[in-house]
Amino acid sequence: MDFLLSLLVNVAYAILIITLIVAVFFGLLKMLVGVGNMFGMVGLSKSAVNLSDKITVGLITNIKKLKIPIIAVLLILIVGFTYVDYNSIAKPIAFNKEKAKRYAKVITRLKDIRTAQVAYKERYKNFTGNFDSLINFVKYDSLLLVRNMGSYNEDTLTEQKAIELGIILRKLPDTLTAERAVEMGFVVRDTIKVAVLDSIFPKNYPIDSLKYIPYTNKIEFKLGAGTIITGDTATGGVKVKVFEAVDVAPFDIYDTLKVGSLTEANNNSGNWE
Fold it and tell me: Per-domain residue ranges for the chain?
């Protein structure tokens, strides 16, 4: 296909060059006729006119003979240039559509990595730069939660789910504070362990795929973790734990997705947010 397009372009250039040569040639003949008439050089004028007539007759005769091939070439050129114009519009549209589909999956995966990292930090007070450690943590480790027997947190747990888990016996009045409820004996606090995988991801979540970039042949995100200093370094600054996960095989090489940062404290945000 590229060869055909190249051929069509070259033919177009050839026709353009031939047209320019013919135009220049006839322009020179016309100039000779004018010079001959101006200086009384009748022979020069007649010769130029005769040559012009012969060439014109020859061109007309050949064009009549080659009418069908010329029309065919022109049609091919028209079709070829139309195809090129269509592709120049259609390809970017198709590319952006495919990019949107792929990047939606990548962003979802990066958000899941962030969720796992936040849980890891909650448990071990720092992030990890190793996917095996992160995945094993989610699969086999647990989180320590403070359970309030007699109340529940509506922001993270529904009343029905809390009842099913045995965390609450009844819902307390909205006007009663947690501290007062403990003092009155309505609430008994207890620390329990909850499996990480069941806590932060839906059932049957493919946790082993967490490290792979979607739509690739198991290419892994680049994961890193560390500590940076923010604030006034003269006074020691503030140490902040950070992590970063980067798509190292972006569909659009000019638009790389990542979450977190190893160089600044950005609250673990993604560069698409």
Answer: 2-93, 135-200
